[in-house]
Amino acid sequence: MKKYSIITVQNIDISISTEDNIDYICLTDMVKEQEGEDHIRNWMRNRNTLEFLGAWEMLHNPTFKGVEFDTFLHEADMLNLALWTCTAKQWRDANPEHAKKGLNIRDTASINELVVLANLESFNAELLKRDMDKFTRYACLKEMSERQLTRLNAIDAEKGFRKLEAKNNTVTK
Fold first, then answer.
1. Domain identity same for 145 and 85
2. DSSP code at position 64
3. Residue 96 belongs to domain spanning
4. CA–CA separation, 141 vs 134, rounded Å?
5. Which of 36, 59, 114, 140 has the greatest number of CB atoms lying within 10 Å of its CB?
6. Which has the closest alpha carbon to 99: 87, 85, 111, 89?
7. Strand partners, 25
């Protein structure tokens, strides 16, 4: 039977659940008071966190579907490849200074890249529903990412030119 309790550490209430004389501390309680939910979101996007959760589930959840979980992890790599032409691991290896700070490829992405990535995630889910094979999905995702990122970057450049033109017109008057 699970028991729940709360401890307070540095004025932060942290939930503890106890089952079979083993205590489980709520990590999200520990960080949610500092800088909102950003810590939690960043932690949940980190591949190491996902791999840890998969390993934990394999050890403690007899109904855990490891094969489906592995597919999920590989889907994230495919989206990175389609957008940034590298996996998360390749990016970490190429950017050790960022990796040491706990940053991942998404943390350093532009707003345009994040918009495209969100679109890719939705589009990939649709392609998976249609049972499209991995290679065809990758080709579709790659094409979509290039098209959308090119267009969004062109819009940004156009806005920049308009601002510059407006500034120049004000200076010459």
1. yes
2. -
3. 70-172
4. 10
5. 140
6. 89
7. 16
